[in-house]
Amino acid sequence: MGKVTTATLKAKKEKGEKITMLTSYDYATAAMVDEAGIDMILVGDSLGMVVLGYENTLSVTMEDMLHHTRAVSRAVKNVMVVGDMPFLSYHISREEAVRNAGRFIQEAGAHAVKLEGGKERVGTIKAILDAQIPVMGHIGLTPQSVNQLGGFKVQGKDLETARMLIEDAKALEKAGVFSIVLECVPTPLAKKITEEVSVPTIGIGAGPYCDGQVLVINDMLGMFKGHIPKFVKKYANLEPVIREALLNYKAEVEAGVFPGKEHSFNMSDDVLEKLY
Ligand code: KIV
Questions:
Q1: Residue ranges of the chain that CATH labels 3.20.20.60
Q2: How far apart are CA 195 and CA 180, in angstroms?
Q3: Which of 26, 61, 102, 252 would bridge 258 by S-S if both were Cys, CB 3.0 to 4.6 A apart?
Q4: Whole-number Å distance between alpha carbons of 145 and 96
Q5: Catalytic site residue 183?
């Protein structure tokens, strides 16, 4: 597989081939995602919740995002890296939005950026595109608007909001985004949007008819003990595996079982004798 670009994704939609995307926040994980042949890595601002321990994504800063995007970029060969623009990095002015989007490319090695919002973001998106930076849209449940939305809820369930989401998707397509994330929208609505726009839709909690899927990697690997959203499928359950490994390590160190001979280094008797 060669390097994934926006053209690769467009061709996949045209051929009806599904697109794969996962989040990653560090070098080691990104290397595995790249080796698995996943199309895109999103260095998501979900970083705030799954790595930095915040309650939501609103506290994540540009510096946090750049730090983790750099680690991911250093690991990848073929995957397309999308940097997620954090809260307030694109809301204040178009100029600031372009500067911040540019930092993802210039300082952190990302290939594209993602930002949340529909029609209201068209001017900002066009300004970023003018700087030759590919932009991915994100509509439906947009976690940076959690306070305005009144929680993490499915969006577009009534006629008015469903129509608004279709209009938003079309506005983003017209603005020139290369792809649109649809988060937590009913399956039939995601299907309709996918049919009506020419750019690939990437679903998360949006059913099987999107052109591609994205999941937060910590969720799909089962790194958490607590609640995970309904739309997540756990492809592994690592939390109990890690917990057992930690308990075994503690027990073996405390009992003097680890390190054994096979984990230790020796030296010649000659040298040793001279030490005593
Ligand atoms: O930050 C993130 O991980 C995201 C995905 C859930 C799409 O925006």
A1: 6-237
A2: 13
A3: 252
A4: 20
A5: yes
Task: Return the number of other C-beta atoms located less than 10 Å from residue 259's C-beta.
Answer: 11
Q: In 3-state terms, what secondary structure has residue 158? A: coil
Is residue 210 lining ligand 1, measured as CB closer than 6 Å? no
Structure tokens at 166: 């279709």
Q: Which two tokens stand for residue 46?
A: 């979900």
pTM above 0.90, yes or no: yes
Q: Is 213 in the pocket of ligand 1 (CB under 6 A)?
A: no
CATH topology for 6-237?
TIM Barrel (3.20.20)
pLDDT averaged per 10 residues, the chain (length 276): 95 98 98 98 97 95 98 98 98 98 98 98 98 98 92 94 98 98 98 98 98 98 89 97 98 98 96 94
- Tally of CA atoms within 13 A in the half-sphere of 234 that contains its CB: 14
Best probe residue, ligand 1, of 65, 216, 228 (max atoms within 8 Å of C-beta): 216
Q: How do strand 112-114 and strand 135-140 relate by DSSP bridges?
A: parallel
Instruction: Render pLDDT for 185-229 as a digit per residue (tens, 0 to 9).
Output: 999 999 999 999 999 999 999 999 999 999 999 999 999 888 889
Residue 254 φ/ψ, nearest 5 degrees:
-65, -30
